[in-house]
Amino acid sequence: GDNDDDNGNDDYQLSNPPNAQWSISLQSEYNYQEISFAWQGSDDQTAINDLWYRVQLTGSGAFDFWTMDETLVCWPGLGAHTLTITALDFDNQQDPSPLTYSFATIGNQPLAPANLSCSDAGSGLRLSWQSNDSYTVGFTVWRDYDQWLADVGANVLAYTDQNIVVETAYRYVVVSFNDFGWTASEPLYCSLAGEEQQGDQEEDYQDPLYQMADRFDYPVGYPDFVDWYDAQPFGSIAYIADQFHSGNDLNKTDYNDLGAPVYAPANGLIVDMKTTTHDEWGKCLIIRSLAPPNEYFYFPDGTVGEEVHFMLAHLGDINILTPSGYLSEDRIVPGETIVQRGWEIGTIGNFGFSPHLHLECWQELDYDDPYPWGHAYYDPIPEQKCDAMEFIANNRFLDNYFAIYCHTYDQWVDEVTRFERLTDNWNQITGYEPFCYGDDCDPVLGYNNLLYVVEDNQEAIARWYLEIVDSGFYEVFVWVSNYHYLGIGNYVINASASNDPVIEIDGAVYSNEWVSLGIHPFDVNDDNYIELSTFGGSSSNLEIAADAIKLEHRPYQTHRAIDLPPKVVVDSFPNPFNSNVSISFQTESPLTVDLIVYDIRGRKVAILMQDRLIEGEYQTIWDGVSDSGSAVPSGVYFAVVQSQNNIIGNKKVIYMK
C-alpha cells in the first residue's frame, strides 16, 4: 500500500511482494456521477507489466474483479463505499498492505435556472437564464408543456426558438439536469413582440412536466430504504395459505413504524384517494407517474411502459408537504393534485393491521373501477401488478440498466409457465411453515417466502423459462437462500450461442444473496431457460433449493429482433492467448456480417470484419490491438458476430500478456 517507504523499485529484492500507490487526488465525497480512480504499481522487476490488481468496491453497486489496468472508471451507487486495490505479481506474491480508500457518493439535484427572460431575435425568440450551480451538467428547453426544443451544456445560458408564429404567446420552461435528477425553472410566457409574463397561468397539474418521473426512490427510509426491510415480499405466501401477496409490506428494522413519514417515490399525479378507515386498508393514495419523452420504465418482467401507478396503503393520515406548506387531505383533488419526488405525503397508521406500509406497483389502472384498491392476496396474481421494490430498483435512474426477474410463484401467472418443477420431489417451503432443526427454529424465507427444496440423495430438476424482450448480453444471477444445509446446485443456461458447461454453485457458501453465473448472450427468438439439477458436475447430493432468478442487462448490443439471421458457432485458438488469436466461424447462407471485439464492460474495442459473405468458413486474426491503435490490457473479451444489428454468435476470449 501507499504507507510503505520503499522508494519505488530501488530497494526491492527478487522475492519482495508488489506494491501500489494512488496516482490521482482523491475526494472524500463525490456527487452521483462517473468517477475515475488511478494508481501505479511497482515490483521487484524493472518491468511492472506482469502485475494484476484485484479491484473491490463495497457498498451500493459493489464489484470484485481482477484486471491489469491501473485505472478504474465506475458509477458507485449512493452511500458509503470502500475501494480496495490489491497488487499480485506472476510469482503469486501479493501486496501485504493493499490500497484502501473510503468515500461517499451523494445525490445533489441541480438548482433551478433563475431569471428566465426572452427577447426578440429577428424572426425568433431568444431565451436567456442564469445559473452558476456546480452540480448542473446541462439544460433542457421545453415549450408549451410537452414540446422538447433542445438540450444544451451547462455553460450555455441561452437558446433561440426560430419555429414560432407572430403574435402567438408561448410558454417556456428551462430544466437543469445532472445524473441524479432535474429541476425546472418557473414558467415564462413570451410572444414575438417580446412580451413576458412570469409565473404559470394554469394549475401545475395540467403540466405534464410535473408528472414526468426521471427516477424513483423508496417511499420509506427515503431515499435509499435505510433502516427498513421488506417483511412480506411480493408473491409470498405468509398470511393466507395458497394465496399470493400482491404488494410489498415494508417495516422498520426497529419496528417503530407508527407515525413514520411516507414520501412520494417519484413525480406524479394523485389519481385516486381513500380517506375512510373502517376497513383493513386504512387511508390510501394512488399516484401515477409518466415517463419523459422518448423514455420508458422497465418493469421486472422485462417489458417497458410509459406510465406506472403506485398504491400506498395503511396510511394513518394524508398531508402533502409542498414547498408552500402542508396540503391537507380535504384540499387534495384526485386528477388534479400533483406530488414531486421526495415530498412527504403522509404517515403510517395502524388501521386493520399492525403498522406498516403496504406498497403496490401497477402497470395500468382501470379508472372506472369503483374499488381500485382490489385485494392484497390472489391466485393467480393479476398480470398488471408487479413487485414494487424490483420496479424501483430497475428505475432508480432512467438509463440502459434494467433487470428481468423470474420467481417461483411465476408458475401461476397468467397461465404462462415461467417456473416448472420437472420432477415431483420438490417440497414447497414458505415463511408460513417454519422448518426447525433441534432448538434452532427459523422460517425459511429465501427471496420472497416461497421456496422449493429437494432432500438429500435425490435426483431433481427445475427450470425457469425466461421471457427475453431485448436480445443482448445479460449477467445471470441466482438467489441462494438461507436454507441450512444446501449442497451443490448444477445450473445450465440454454441461451443464444451458449456453449457454457454446467455451472456449480455451492449453497453452503452463501446465505440469502444473489450469486452470479456470469455474462451470457440471450436472443428473443430462442427458447431461453435456466435449469437446476442435483446431478451432473460434482454434486454433493445434499439438499438444494430453487428460488428466484435475475438477469441484469449488459449493453454490449441491445435491439428488438423479430426475424433473426441464422446463428453461427464462433471458435478461437489459442484461448487464452498472449499475442494473436485466430477467430473463425462458418455461415450457411449469404450474410452481411460484422465481427466486433467488446471488452467485459460492453465497450467496443476492435472491428475485425465488416463484409457481405457467401456461404463458407471464415477466419481472421486479432492481435490484441484496439481500433485506436493501442494494445489492450490483459482480460476477458467477447468476439461477437452480428448481422443486421443482431447477435448471431459469440466467443469469450482471454488475453494474457
Automatic annotation (TrEMBL):
Name the UniProt record assigns to this protein: Uncharacterized protein
InterPro entries the record matches: CBD-like_Golvesin-Xly, Dup_hybrid_motif, FN3_sf, Ig-like_fold, Secre_tail
Annotated CDD domains: M23_peptidase (cd12797)
Organism per entry: Candidatus Komeilibacteria bacterium CG_4_9_14_0_8_um_filter_36_9
Domain called Golvesin/Xly CBD-like: residue spans: 450-552
Positions of the Secretion system C-terminal sorting domain: 573-654
